Amino acid sequence: MSQVILTIPDEQLAPLLKVLKALPFAIKTKTVAPPKPKQYTPAQQEWINDFREALHEVELHQQGKIKLQDARDFLNEL
Q: Which of 12, 38, 45, 50 has the fewest Cβ atoms within 10 angstroms?
């Protein structure tokens, strides 16, 4: 037995169920509520924001728009 999971807009659910119920085999349907957005602590949110900023800088570097410091220069500053 195979399982298929579909994510479809609510307004298209009724017509799809009508078609599925007309098929000659058993169909089980289950509506699942979308997950609630995760709440982060301020420290976690700060880490996420810093990580996004770092990724953005890497993208800009890959596009040639900015020059990033290499690891050797960074370590020499320490």
A: 38
